[in-house]
């Protein structure tokens, strides 16, 4: 996408670059062109969309950057039992949250945890500490899952933020 390879990413710059690329690649621009040009446009436009989505989300961006460095998150790695217990408790809290106040407090808490993990990931990537990056991304996967549950709960209960 023509951006510096860094975990820290300016979303505004990413959005500008995305729009700039789509301005030239979007299939609508090639509607009057031959079939080959239309197909190429559709393929490249799709790749730009995928890259944008990957880079926009902190978790997928981190996983992608880790993959560029020849590593990936092991699904069956040993996780700290205390961490897993904390995650189970948070999941139970989300499932049992009934009031708007409870849901919004959990949303605020989990969002803050994810922001802290992003800062730690930035430092770990900057320092080249891939073991730490892998562990942090594993933790972020769990917290992102909880965050997604909270967002579903907010939508399902019609809570306006």
Automatic annotation (TrEMBL):
Keyword field contains Transferase: no
Residue stretches making up the J domain: 1-68
Coiled coil: 89-120
The keyword Chaperone is annotated on this UniProt entry: yes
Secretion signal span: none
InterPro entries in the record: DnaJ_domain (IPR001623), HscB (IPR004640), HscB_C_sf (IPR036386), HscB_oligo_C (IPR009073), J_dom_sf (IPR036869)
Molecular function per GO: ATPase activator activity; protein-folding chaperone binding
GO CC list: mitochondrion
Key words of the record: Chaperone, Coiled coil
Annotated GO biological process: [2Fe-2S] cluster assembly; protein complex oligomerization
Family the entry assigns: Belongs to the HscB family.
Protein name: J domain-containing protein
């Amino acid at each position: 996408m023509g951006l510096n390879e860094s975990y820290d990413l300016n979303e505004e710059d990413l959005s500008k670059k995305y729009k700039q690329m789509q301005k030239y690649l979007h299939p609508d621009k090639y509607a009057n062109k031959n079939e080959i040009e239309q197909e190429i446009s559709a393929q490249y436009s799709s790749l730009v969309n995928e890259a944008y989505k990957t880079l926009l989300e902190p978790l997928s961006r981190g996983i992608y950057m880790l993959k560029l460095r020849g590593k990936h998150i092991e699904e069956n790695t040993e996780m700290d039992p205390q961490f897993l217990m904390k995650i189970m408790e948070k999941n139970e809290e989300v499932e049992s949250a009934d009031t708007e106040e409870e849901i919004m407090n959990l949303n605020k808490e989990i969002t803050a945890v994810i922001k802290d993990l992003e800062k730690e990931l930035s430092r770990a990537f900057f320092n080249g500490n891939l073991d730490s990056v892998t562990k942090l991304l594993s933790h972020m996967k769990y917290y992102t899952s909880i965050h997604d549950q909270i967002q579903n709960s907010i939508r399902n209960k019609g809570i306006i933020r």
